[in-house]
């Protein structure tokens, strides 16, 4: 009889639980279900091929690393430190950048349009691939980038709703219309996230109040607002903050925050 360890199989298929609402799951059991339900499918064959390609690249990189001399390492370190110093001197940290991320966006839109789905585990996509899942479904290990047939094995009562991108675009534009009042030059990153520069606007207004105003105007879609001076910091913090939360990083705490991500 195969053990959980032996059937967890390909690393490319194992559960990535680095997503809000997926903490404390039994990863070993979930990986076993994923492996067993995938065997013999085109998805399994694709992941096998993908894993072999990754393993080959890792082997090649390790071979290259073994050939690098200490002198070459020191020269590269010196060059890197020089480039870091040059980039640091050019950085402009005078702006307040906000990253807004709509939480489980496609699923949130579907639940708002179909109230009977609220409180039930749902995912958006098809049996071939899921685009997102709500928090109820994540409790079972169901998440985006997972085939729907595997999601059904993890959660037999999972409701899979077909994608409706026309509707998602409509709601996304509604959010963007609100944001445009604060920054006409906002930068959309996708349908469910965007960046905006509030430097001028917040001179006379409180940042937390701006977050509350946006959430109230688009009250049915949860949004996470992160106030930073650094675009990459904004993106990374919003991965941690969920459920209409606002989080701010000031210049003095930037390095401490980034070190925690390593």
What's the gyration radius in Å? 22 Å
Mean pLDDT over all positions: 84
List the total number of helices: 11
Q: SSE order, as H and E?
A: HHHHEHEEHHEHEEHEHEH
Question: How large a portion of the residues is in β-strands, by DSSP E?
Answer: 5-15%
Bulk shape: flat
Main pleated-sheet profile: 5 strands, mixed
Count of strand segments: 8
GO cellular component, one term: nucleus
GO biological process, one term: DNA repair
GO molecular function: DNA-directed DNA polymerase activity
Pfam family, one: IMS
Q: In words, what does this structure look like?
A:
The chain has 262 residues and is α/β, with parallel strands linked by helices. It is built from eleven helices and eight strands. The protein has a five-stranded mixed sheet with strand order 5-6-1-7-8, with helices on both faces. The two termini are 39 Å apart. It comes from Trichonephila clavata (Joro spider). This is DNA polymerase kappa. Residues 97-199 form the UmuC domain. One of its GO terms (biological process) is DNA repair.
Brief write-up:
The protein is of the alpha/beta class and 262 residues long. Helix content is 48%, strand content 13%. β2 (122-125) and β3 (130-133) form a beta hairpin.
Topology:
Elements (H helix, E strand, L loop, with lengths): L3 H4 L19 H12 L3 H26 L2 H21 L6 E6 L2 H9 L8 E4 L4 E4 L1 H4 L9 H7 L4 E3 L3 H15 L7 E4 L2 E5 L9 H11 L5 E6 L2 H10 L5 E3 L5 H7 L2
Parallel strand pairs: 2-4, 7-8
Antiparallel strand pairs: 1-6, 1-7, 2-3, 5-6
Helix pairs in contact: 2-7
């Amino acid at each position: 009889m195969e053990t959980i360890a032996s059937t967890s199989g390909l690393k490319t298929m194992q559960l990535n639980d680095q997503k809000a609402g997926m903490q404390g799951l039994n990863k070993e059991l979930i990986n076993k279900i994923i492996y067993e339900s995938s065997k013999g499918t085109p998805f399994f064959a694709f992941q096998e091929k993908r894993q072999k390609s990754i393993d080959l690249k890792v082997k090649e990189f390790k071979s290259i690393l073994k050939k690098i001399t200490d002198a070459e390492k020191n020269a590269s370190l010196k060059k890197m430190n020089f480039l870091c110093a040059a980039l640091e001197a050019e950085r402009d940290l005078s702006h307040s950048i906000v990253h807004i991320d709509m939480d489980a966006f496609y699923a949130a839109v579907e639940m708002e349009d179909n109230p009977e789905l609220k409180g039930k585990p749902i995912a958006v996509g098809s049996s071939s691939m899921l685009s997102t899942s709500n928090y109820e479904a994540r409790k079972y290990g169901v998440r985006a980038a997972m085939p729907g047939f595997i999601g059904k094995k993890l959660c037999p009562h999972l409701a899979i709703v077909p994608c409706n991108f026309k509707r998602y675009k409509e709601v996304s534009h509604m959010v963007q219309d609100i944001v445009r009042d604060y920054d006409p030059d906002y930068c959309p990153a996708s349908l469910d996230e965007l960046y905006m520069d509030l430097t001028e606007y917040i001179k006379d207004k409180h940042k937390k109040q701006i977050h509350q105003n946006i959430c109230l105007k688009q009250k049915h879609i949860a949004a996470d607002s992160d106030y930073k001076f650094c675009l990459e910091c904004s993106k990374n913090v919003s991965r941690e903050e969920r459920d209409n939360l606002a989080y701010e990083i000031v210049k003095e705490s930037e390095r401490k925050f980034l070190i925690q991500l390593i």
